[in-house]
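ok trying this again, last paste got cut off
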Amino acid sequence: MQHLKLGDIDIEVDQKDIKNIHLSVYPPNGRVRIAAPERMDLDTIRVFAISKLQWIKNQQETLQQQEREPKREYINRESHYFFGKRYLLKVHEVDLAPRVEVDHRYIHLFVRPDSPIEKKAEVMDEWHRSELKKIVPSLIAKWEKEIGVAISDYGIKKMRTKWGSCNTEAKRIWLNLELAKKPKTCLEYIIVHELVHLLERSHNERFVKFMDEFMPKWRFYRDELNRLPYSHVDWDY
């Protein structure tokens, strides 16, 4: 692993058998990493990093300001979020298959007696995933028609550094499981963002123009998403 130094910013450089250069800024502290093709010399990578310096600083500032939720213990009256609304958790120990139910105030978590935290987290994750799958297809269909694109598939997974991603060649988008905890408008913004990448791969002026055209309030939704607390993660690098 090589390193570049731009002022007080240290950048890890990993050269490998890939076609394009990729820049990432990782939570929680804004670690910067560039993955670059093996054939690319370090001076070219440095020029690329300099061109992205302001973007790197903006990303680091956003990460440092974003509030983190405390580590979840899955105990009674613990706060949990579902589509932007805060609920209290109520744990029910029953000798039945695990499940989750929600009412106007509580998220009810049904688990077998003496279930460990890891099992409770798994049940909650699968419930969040299933709830997302109930609404994501219709949102995708709506915006495919509006934007004039079509994807081949979508998926939901835990993502540490992004709210979503788009493989433009495979026409597949991925959505962060955390979006089940955020307002539905934020979920919709991410879907639009990823679909627009089928028209423009980069976050350039053309991309911004498309976003302004299809979702004029996208900056508001983006800022709201970045302002809301993000789940606790045990960072192990």
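PB: full thing came through this time. Helices lie at 42-51, 53-65, 117-147, 184-196, 205-214, 218-227.
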